[in-house]
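Lecture notes, part 5. Sequence design as translation. It can be helpful to think of inverse folding as translation between two languages: the language of shapes and the language of residues. The source text, in structure tokens, appears below.
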């Protein structure tokens, strides 16, 4: 059986096109930002997660209620004013081993997830939130993890 060039040409073009884009490479996606001038399509975005301990896993019920109340006030006074457009909070369990400790601390935690433009002003807002939480709680650290993301509204 002999294949004609008119049959092979579309097949060859399809194969070459598939090879031109490496597997797993991102493809162009158009963002729908129409009517939202505050979020320009060409902005560079980050997803920042802040890991905040809110108390021991084995805390008593009154201690848990107090910690949740303190957390809500913290969000209202420190996070919401800086990121009024929105953020998410995820309840989490975490643990870490302090230097010199023999057993890890098991902690109830909150993860604040913020999608924001990658600007010096937003970075300063994130650092202000971390510093405020450490002052409020006496914690040694608030873990920050940031990565670049594609965002569409």
């Amino acid at each position: 059986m002999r294949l004609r060039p008119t049959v092979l040409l579309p097949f060859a073009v399809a194969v070459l096109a598939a090879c031109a884009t490496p597997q797993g490479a991102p493809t162009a996606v158009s963002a729908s930002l129409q009517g939202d001038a505050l979020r320009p399509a060409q902005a560079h975005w980050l997803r920042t997660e802040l890991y905040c301990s809110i108390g021991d896993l084995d805390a008593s019920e009154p201690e848990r209620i107090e910690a949740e109340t303190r957390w809500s006030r913290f969000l209202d006074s420190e996070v919401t004013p800086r990121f009024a457009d929105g953020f998410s909070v995820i309840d989490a369990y975490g643990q870490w081993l302090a230097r010199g400790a023999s057993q890890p601390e098991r902690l109830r935690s909150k993860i604040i997830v913020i999608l924001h433009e990658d600007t010096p002003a937003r970075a300063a807002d994130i650092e202000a939130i971390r510093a405020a939480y450490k002052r409020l709680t006496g914690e040694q650290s608030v873990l920050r993890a940031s990565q670049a993301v594609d965002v569409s509204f």
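The translated text above is only one of many valid answers, since several sequences can fold into similar shapes. The first strand starts at residue 45 and ends at 56.
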